[in-house]
Every structure is written in C-alpha cells, then in structure tokens.
Amino acid sequence: MKFPLTKTTPLTAAAIFCVILCFLNGPGRGAKATEPNQSETATIEGKLSPAQTPGRLSWKIPVSESSSDMLWWHRVLSVQPPIEVVLSADTSQLELPLSKNLPPTVEVKISSQRVPKSDAFLRMNQIQLIGTHNSYHIAPHPVVLRVIRRFKPSEARYIAYTHPSLSDQLTRLNLRHFEIDIFNDKQGGAFAYPRGARLVKIRNWRAAHPEFDSDAMATPGFKVLEYPDFDFRSNTPTVKAALREWSSWSRQHSLHLPIMILIETEKSAAGKPSNEMSTFDTSDFEELEKEILQVLDPDQIITPDEVRGSYETLNQAIRKKGWPLMGDCRGRFLFALDNPGEERVNYLKLHPQLRGALLFVSSPANEPESAFLKMNDPINNHTEIQQRVGEGYLIRSRADADLVEGRANDHQRRNHAFSSGAHYISTDFPEARPEFSGYVVRWENEQVGRLNPLFNHDRDGIVLEPATLNSESVVKIYVLEVPSDQVR
Questions:
Q1: Predicted structure pTM score
Q2: What is the pLDDT of residues 129-170, one digit of tens each?
Q3: Nearest Cα residue to 178 out of 446, 350, 439, 428
C-alpha cells in the first residue's frame, strides 16, 4: 500500500535514464544529512528495466549496502516543479506517470534512512504505546496544596502528582505519548505572577519553584500549565520549550516510534484577569500552527493530508487504505486536538475536513475528517474501542484517572485499556508512586511498546524499536532527466 508524502503519490516505470545532481554519493555514507551542498555535484546515468505497470517512468534510488536486518527507507520531501512524483511500495524507486507534458527535468528532495525490515509491512496502527496524562504536570507546592485542599478537597486529591522532564519520560520511561494543556497568552505575562504562590506568603516563592521560568512566562506565546494561579507548575513552561525538547530528542533518536502529542486548548481573555478563559478561535489555531512550524520541520509531522493521500476523505483513507507503514513514521510526530466541542468546530472552520491541517481531531466516527478517536473509558467502551480499532481508527484511551486506580492499586481499567487495542494509553503512573501504592502502567520487561493484540502478526522478525535508535540517514536532491519524447 502506498502513502504519498507530498502532494504526489507513488507510481512505477517504463524505461528511463536519469541524471542526479546532489551529493557525490547515494544515501548511506556519513552523518545525518542537512541541506545538500549544491556545489558538490555528480552525474550518474542509468537505463532501467520496463515498469511492472505500463504507462509509468521509474528510477531506482542508489544506496549503499545495508545489513541483513535493516533496509533503506525513502520519503519524498518536495518536488519541483510540483508534479506527481512518488515512491514505489517498497520505496526503492521513484516513479512518475508517463505523459507527454512532463518538464525536461524534475528535482526531488528525498530523506533516506536505515530502518528495521519489518517497517515495510508493519503499520503505525498495529502497535500500542503508553504515555502520560498532563505530561508537564508538577504537583503544587505543599503550602499551596493545603490551601486548595481547604477549599476544593476533591480537586486537591487528584492533582497531587508530578511527572519528570519530557526527555526523561522519553529516555528512561520509554513513553511515546504526551498530553499538554495550552493557553494562548497573546500579550505575555498573564501567568507570570501566580497569585496562589503569593497569597499563601511563601517566602521567596520563586526559589520554592525552581522550574518556574519567569522570562518565558513574561513573553507572548503559548503557555503549558493545568490551571492559572494555583495549579500552575510545569516541567515545560511554553509550547516552544516542549517542542524543542521533543525535537532535540527525536533528532538524536531517529528510529523512535511515532510520538503522539495530544493538545488541549484554552485562552486567556485579553485585558481580563488570567483566570478568565475563553475558547480558541481560528486565529488562535493559526498562531498555534505557526508556532509548531517555528520549531519542527514539516517532514517531522504526520499530517491528515499525508494519511488521506489520494482518497476523497480522511475517513475513507483510514478505513480502506489504512495508516502509514512504520518506515514512513519513524522519528516523527502526530498531533491531535483533545477538545471535542467548540474548539474542534473552530479548527475545522480553519481546515475543512482537515485539509492543510497539522492536527487530527476527535470527530464522531464516520465523519469525513474522522480518523482519530478519544475514548477515555476502556471499561464501559471496551467493545466499541475494539470495533473502532478494527475499522481503522486510531484510538487514545486512559488506564487511570484522578489518581483513583493508583491509590487503590486497581489494575482493572489498565487491563481493559491494554486488551481494548487502544493505540495510545495514557496514565499518571508510568512508574510506581510509593506514597500511593505499587500501581504502575508499563509493558512487560519495560518495553517501549507492543504489537496490538487485535491484529494478526504472522510474520517473524518484527522490530518495534531497535537497541540503537541512532540511524544513518541523509537528505539529498536528485534531478531526474525526462526522455525527450515525454517533454511538453
């Protein structure tokens, strides 16, 4: 099955010779590539055999040898001029339709890296991964927590947890799903002076909150926290800081499984106290997407357009074609919107049917844009989750909530989440918290993930994440010469 990675989609070939202008070598010699040095060029010519499917031109991508358990996987990053140039099913060949209106040359930028051989048939929705709920959260200072407990005892009970840094969650805890609550602080400073810490008269409250980044909180932009003034502590103060931490880790571990980032949005009302909130509108989402792309490259993100491919709707694509192969997903992120109500409607106004969108949304099943579903109760929704997984939807669920299961050492909800086949399972207990119980949510042998039990994995040698996550990878530009009788 083929998954387009640009505006274009994969094809096959007749016979053609090509000219390559790029680095001197084909992929596979040296460190992670950046932009090709245009002054280092070489011309390589080759005549290829006829295509399996008539009416197409093809060219085999040159690579160095690979080990017996790895293969080269290629992704198209851009095409100039923007015509249909894609990859064969095994990504070994560039392909374009045979036509009499082709340009003399086609410039194609390709990212190539060595991946496990099972990446050629394992899809991203055929595995299960664990992540954290409110991944940024640090429990309020004990003095502040006592105040919260006095006025809102139930709330104090379920916010008494702390997660380590995002990098620590990735490296030490092997987590591949994160959730952040974000506020659009348009003017800056809305959350820079939390009243809770000052009202309880904590002596030198800044020193009592060493993670608090005053400079970052004073500047305009998206902030990451649970609730202003009292439950404000965060291991990452801004969306940009979170993105930089994730991206830095990802670039150093390019074979990691796809990381899902769930975003819940709120907005501080301009000119009003910071605890007065409103919903994101289309302009807020535009700003959010710009901020994401200021840190991440577009090719680091698995987008709805990519998954949709040539199908009319995203829903049709995931039900008939399926999700991308693992080779197309390694080292990348998938963003999803947590909000199901007005915010989802506003985002769809900005991107009808998610065309041109960076985020997936949790729309009801069978809607044109529906591909990701948030189904947080794996006990009451166990049968439906299994049904939706079988239909092709990507599901996020929760193994626990409000610290209830952790306090009771109750694994029932966790076990239902595992057996439901939900793909991304969220928890507040990626490691045991002795102050509560021995309750913990992790896979056997502390693996990064596991094969989804609802799929028939009948092939041997499947590798989720290899022991070494640093893969040899390059980005190169190839200029393909089109046969003269096909030039417009």
A1: 0.87
A2: 999 999 999 999 888 888 888 888 888 899 999 999 999 999
A3: 428
